[in-house]
Amino acid sequence: MSTYPLIISSPDGDLYRGDVRQIILRGSEGDLAILAGHIPFVTSVQKGRCVVEDAEGTRREGLIEEGLLTVDREKVTVLTTALKLE
Question: Which pTM value belongs to this model?
Answer without folding.
Answer: 0.94
